[in-house]
Amino acid sequence: MASKLLLSLSLLLLTLTLHTSCTTALAKRTNPNPTITTTTDFIKSSCKATRYPAACVQTLSGHASAIRQSEQQLAVTALSVSVSKTRSCASFVKRMGSVKGMKPREYNALRDCVENMNDSVDRLSQSVKELGLVMGKGKGKKDFTWHVSNVQTWVSAAITDQDTCLDGFDGPHVDANLRASVRPRVVDASQVTSNALALVNRFASKYRSASQT
Known about the structure:
This protein is 81% helix and 0% strand. By secondary structure, it is mainly α. It has 2 domains: 1-31; 34-211, Butyryl-CoA Dehydrogenase, subunit A, domain 3. Helix 2 packs antiparallel against helix 3 (53-60) and helix 7 (141-167) runs antiparallel to helix 8 (176-211). The chain starts with a helix and ends with a helix. It comes from Glycine max. Keywords: Signal. One of its GO terms (biological process) is plant-type cell wall modification. This is Pectinesterase inhibitor domain-containing protein. Belongs to the PMEI family.
């Protein structure tokens, strides 16, 4: 009798344990982390200030845990993503230069593009470091303006580098297939960089407004 009672209690305990586990798992699936959800909403709202909001949300949503709801971290992350995209594009274009049978003008266009994209990576990388300095201990409004101005100048120059790369593939002297391979990747990097600049500008505007109140 005692053994049957013990078995019944064990089965009941196992049933309750399984029910609790299933309920918890279901809750995790149906109720996502509220912090991540709130940050994603913050990213979507912020991306409305960019020229390419869909690309902005797509590239930044995966970094929600790092961004949280910080305007500065959002801008820094956007710049970091731009560095990654631009560097990847430069590597791809460089590999294209090793294709045999290429015309001299096409090879020169690829070479110049790689140079421009590498310059863009350098400017963007420096911008990430610079933006990390604006809110350091003891930084005043004058320091903030100086650092942000540097970032805005460098990111704008990075966009110009990317546009210059694209210019090299215009005209009939470049094979259509080569243009079709390179152009989408450069455009992608350029759009992400444009969005990053918009978020830097948004951060600067928000900071200045807050400092005046």
